[in-house]
């Protein structure tokens, strides 16, 4: 049969047959050495403050999708940005793309600059040891001069901000273009926060809309990471609500948040802040405690940690103080020292 005599229906069958034969090559057996080769899970470098997250039994900070959930003002944004800045300080080829859908660009800038300087212990302190809080106070000339130094400018050039959800909307399919604009093979993308993702016009059900956006973002990250050169870490921030027992948490709008993630972390308020005596019969709050629950981890163990936030600025000063790991025999926790 000549090509001129092929009907559209016949051409469709030919095309489908070619596609089927091509996809059959993706079905493999386990014979041979290549099938027994498993590449090591590569993690992003961190300082000692976050090194426990990349311990062999956890390997959380790796390319893929991680969800950080928490109640309002629990420290989700601070944790995500501090993690990103910490990793950037260790790796000069790592960039950050921060979608701040909850706060203004101005507030996001202040938060990032504060964390950048605090991570390097460059924030000035008063006579009581309290650090200067950029979130509320004007940027002094001293701090401006520090940030103008070449070493700081080199870091700031790798930090990108946007409050435009256009590139997160499956309708526009512009996620790859935004990553290409950043121009880095190794990038951390933070979305703050998921419940503010754009609503698609063709989906009227909120839950279905939300799930479609989540599936789109996960698919985009997987496609980017399919290139061996790329290392993309997507940090999705999400609000959570307490369950009826007050000891369990649910991601708002949908359970798909946890399902699509490679790992999921929930920040929980602790009942008592850490304090010390002042010598006058009173106590001064020196730190605010959070429980950090690793509730999902595809490449490692689940765990619960204690995280300590500083009392003077939004900053996680200690995170590897305590570690509780699930026992093999039950869902209870077994306390182990680090």
Short description:
By secondary structure, the chain is an alpha/beta fold. Helix content is 28%, strand content 25%. It starts with 7 loop residues before the first helix and ends with a strand.
Could you please describe the fold and organization of this structure?
With 338 residues, the protein is α/β, with parallel strands linked by helices. It has a domain of 211 residues: 3-Layer(aba) Sandwich (Rossmann fold). The protein contains 8 helices and 13 strands. Strands 1, 2, 3, 4, 5, 6, 7, 8, 9, 10, 11, 12 and 13 form a 13-stranded mixed β-sheet that branches. Helix 2 crosses helix 3. It is elongated.
The dominant shape is elongated
> Could you describe the largest sheet, including whether it forms a barrel?
13 strands, mixed
Number of H- or I-type helical stretches: 8
- Residues in helix, %: 25-40%
GO molecular function: ATP binding; DNA helicase activity
Domain SF4 helicase: 66-308
Pfam family, one: DnaB_C
GO biological process, one term: DNA replication
Task: Please specify the SSE layout and strand pairing.
Elements: H1 8-24, E1 64-70, H2 76-90, E2 94-100, H3 105-119, H4 141-147, H5 150-156, E3 159-162, H6 175-182, E4 186-192, H7 206-225, E5 231-242, E6 249-251, H8 256-260, E7 263-269, E8 274-277, E9 283-297, E10 303-310, E11 316-318, E12 323-326, E13 333-336
Parallel strand pairs: 1-5, 1-7, 2-3, 2-4, 4-5
Antiparallel strand pairs: 5-6, 7-9, 8-9, 9-10, 10-11, 10-12, 12-13
Helix pairs in contact: 2-3
């Amino acid at each position: 049969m000549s090509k001129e005599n092929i009907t559209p229906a016949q051409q469709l069958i030919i095309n489908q047959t070619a596609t089927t034969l091509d996809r059959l090559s993706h079905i493999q057996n386990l014979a041979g050495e290549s099938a027994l080769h498993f590449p090591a899970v590569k993690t992003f470098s961190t300082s000692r403050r976050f090194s426990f997250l990349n311990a062999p039994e956890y390997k959380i900070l790796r390319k893929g999708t991680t969800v950080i959930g928490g109640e309002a003002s629990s420290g989700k944004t601070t944790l995500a940005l501090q993690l990103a800045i910490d990793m950037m300080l260790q790796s000069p080829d790592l960039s950050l793309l921060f979608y701040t859908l909850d706060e203004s660009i101005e507030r996001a800038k202040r938060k990032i600059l504060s964390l950048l300087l605090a991570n390097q212990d460059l924030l000035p302190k008063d006579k009581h040891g309290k650090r200067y809080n950029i979130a509320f106070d004007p940027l002094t000339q001293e701090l401006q001069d520090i940030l103008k130094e070449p070493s700081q400018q080199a870091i700031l050039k790798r930090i990108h901000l946007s409050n435009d959800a256009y590139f997160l909307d499956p309708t526009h399919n512009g996620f790859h273009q935004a990553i290409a604009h950043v121009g880095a093979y190794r990038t951390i993308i933070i979305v703050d926060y998921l419940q503010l993702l754009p609503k698609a016009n063709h989906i009227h059900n909120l839950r279905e809309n939300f799930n479609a956006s989540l599936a789109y973002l996960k698919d985009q990250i997987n496609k980017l990471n399919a290139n061996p050169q790329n290392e993309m870490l997507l940090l999705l921030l999400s609000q959570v609500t307490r369950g009826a027992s007050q000891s369990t948490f649910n991601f708002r709008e949908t359970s798909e948040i946890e399902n699509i993630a490679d790992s999921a972390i929930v920040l929980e308020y602790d009942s008592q802040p850490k304090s010390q005596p002042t010598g006058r019969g009173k106590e001064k709050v020196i730190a605010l405690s959070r429980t950090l629950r690793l509730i999902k981890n595809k490449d490692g163990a689940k765990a619960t940690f204690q995280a300590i936030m500083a009392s003077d600025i939004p900053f996680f000063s200690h995170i590897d103080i305590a570690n509780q790991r699930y026992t093999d025999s039950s869902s209870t926790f077994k306390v182990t020292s680090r």
